[in-house]
Amino acid sequence: MDPGTALAVVSLSFDLLASCVRGFTLISDARNIGKDAAIERTKLMLQEHRLIEWAKVIGLNPPRDDGSLEIHKHPAAIILFQLEQLLSSTDALKNRYKLELVSPPNGSDDLVPSEPAIVSDNPASSILSHIVSSEIRQGILKRASTLNTANRFPRRLYWDAVDKKKYAELVQDVTGLVDGLWSLLDIPHRIQTSRAVNQTLQLAIQTSEDIKGLQYLQKSLQDSFTDAGVKNSLAASAGLKAQHILLTSHSGDTQQQAHSDDGTSRVLPAELPSVLDPSQLSSIHMMISTIGSSLYQGDTMLIEEKRVQPRMKAKLKPRVEALVGLLSQSPTPSFLTFPCLGYTEEQGGFRLVFCFPSGTEKPLSLLNVLSKSSGPLPDVGMRLRLAAQVCQTLLSFHTAGWLHKDMRSENILLVSPTSSPSIDRLSRPYLCGFSFARQGSPTEI
Fold first, then answer.
1. pTM listed for this prediction
2. Closest C-alpha among 20, 33, 61, 17 to residue 126
């Protein structure tokens, strides 16, 4: 078929979308994928969700008959056709990527279930296994114009052999095509669609208790999204939630039982928070009642005091340890907190010790900056960016299952490199003041 004829034949049709969904289902549900390709499988599921959200916003799911799709007819049709060719042919997978799907080894001829099963023989099961519900898939396939075997749930197949590198190439090509479809959206619709995907992923992170699944999702988000803000925010949330589960699922001093969505338990090593020697802290200077600075082994540190009544000390110590563990990781663009070195146990409570970023000036609180009567004031854009960054950090903390409980201007410290203008410190708002932080559980006090 010559290119001109092919262009005329290809149309932005619901049948193409149904074939793509069928292809996604065929590949993502295939068994025997192995643990090595689990992250790539998570990325593939994420792209299926993005495709369906794209189809929804342009009126392709459910399909519209008012002709309003003509404006993007040819570019989107060609990309959708390429995606369908990539996903719907086992021969194409074999020839292009050397990935071979075969019939089940036991000779069974079962359909891919309408409700994806999470079973032990599929170690790549993901927390995104249900991000595209069976009702959505079934609805798309049933509404397709050709209701023959081509657009029903496919027969379940098995991977004969999976080359992780080749599988990653497939996922990368699929991602590129879905990105191409998104690029055809106008800016308001792109923002709307991105927000919908963001909200769905946040819910998946909040409700999951699967550490490995969250870690796979974190890596997938870091690799898959072109939107840096979405990527950083959601990846940080997934990583924090995994850390939160790991730290709060104690079953002993050196091991933890972590729940997995495949119904099994994984024994993971527990990295206990560092208990520091109080005598090593010197030159303590309190900036406000609970936050100050101190020298620890010759380095300047930020300290936070958590004062508790003696009778509550033993009860609150596990919370302090879990909080220290959660805050011990390095800051990311969407989770700006000082990395926690450890804690000291004092007569009146606990003291958390945080590392300052190297090569930076002494931080000022947002309250101090706002209270100054002289100097340049930040413009509206800078203030909005500052507020957005603080909200991103707080959202990541909440998604991880924790509540801050003490958000105020004294607890936002502004940091800038020593060579930067003073106004630039507003671009790095670090959240602190975790004295009242607790897990978001009804049993917590």
1. 0.72
2. 33
Domain covering 278-439: architecture = Orthogonal Bundle (1.10)
Is 35 within 8 Å of 124 (Cβ atoms)?
yes
Tens digit of each residue's pLDDT (9 = 90 or more) over 131-160: 888 888 888 887 775 444 444 445 666 777
Tens digits of residue pLDDT in 245-264: 877 665 344 344 444 444 44
**For residues 273, 279, 281 and 286, what is the CA-based torsion angle, rounded to 10 degrees?**
100
Domain 3-209 -> CATH class: mainly alpha
Q: How many CB atoms lie within 10 A of CB 143?
A: 16
